[in-house]
Specification:
Order of helices and strands: HHHHHHHHHHHHH
Number of domains: 1
Structural class: mainly alpha
Strand content: under 5%
Low-confidence stretches: none
Radius of gyration: 16 Å
Number of strands: 0
């Protein structure tokens, strides 16, 4: 149990600092706590709700400034997370994990070797509400399929679109609030949530998220962008290894 709590704390710090990390909670539940994959995914999404709420609160000032960006992304996710949960019972879990891991890893590579294009901000096309809605919809389906709140995909995707790291992280947390709650209700209805374990780890993860968010505000944007990239690449690699 001590190892589980330590890993949960580290996952929270990583999530609060770079916006990705919660995706590792399900593998930890599966490997350390011995849960089956479906229960591990459902329990992870439920346990991450306090961390997501904490992250949304810590980044609230950024989220308020960027609400026009976040709103279409959130709407797309809320509408499509349900179908994603239904598809989860049909498609092979390991194949989905492999695809997701590859996507996250690849998303982190361009930002790590950031050039002028990534420093100029999002183009007019990438600011269109239809594009942001489509992004949220795709992430919503994948969140439902994998049991993740959505930040793991939202943050690297928005960075590739040219958005600043703090904007991407704040949008990711805001997006994940309704998606994780709806997803947890769906998983609970399917009896795929270990509530006692989720309750034990939830508070520790939230504390880690707050600590990570404070750390992120003290790191320059360029360094934070590289931290996000490294986080994406490490997390993506972990998911690929897990799927093999």
């Amino acid at each position: 149990m001590i190892l589980l709590l330590i890993l949960t704390l580290l996952i929270g710090i990583m999530g609060g600092a770079v916006g990705v990390g919660g995706m590792l909670q399900a593998p930890v539940f599966e490997i350390v706590a011995g849960l089956d994959p479906h229960t591990a995914i459902g329990t992870a999404m439920c346990a991450l709700i306090p961390s997501i709420l904490a992250g949304a609160y810590m980044y609230r000032s950024v989220a308020r400034k960027e609400w026009r960006t976040a709103l279409p992304v959130i709407l797309g996710g809320v509408l499509l997370v349900g179908p994603g949960i239904m598809l989860k019972a049909i498609l092979p879990g390991r194949v989905l994990t492999l695809i997701l891991g590859c996507f996250i890893f690849i998303s982190g590579v361009p930002a790590f070797f950031s050039g002028k294009a990534l420093e100029e901000g999002p183009s007019a096309l990438m600011r269109k509400k239809s594009v942001l809605f489509a992004l949220g919809s795709v992430i919503g389906v994948l969140a439902g399929l994998t049991g993740m709140g959505g930040s793991a995909l939202c943050v690297p995707s928005m960075m590739l679109m040219g958005y600043a790291p703090l904007t991407s992280i704040a949008t990711g947390f805001t997006y994940s609030v309704p998606v994780s709650i709806l997803g947890s209700l769906g998983n609970y209805a399917n009896q795929a949530v270990d509530l006692p374990l989720a309750g034990i780890t939830a508070g520790v993860g939230a504390l880690g998220t707050c600590a990570g968010a404070l750390l992120a505000r003290r790191v320059p944007q360029r360094q934070l962008k590289r931290c996000v990239s490294v986080g994406c690449m490490v997390a993506g690699l972990c998911l690929v290894i897990r799927s093999l």
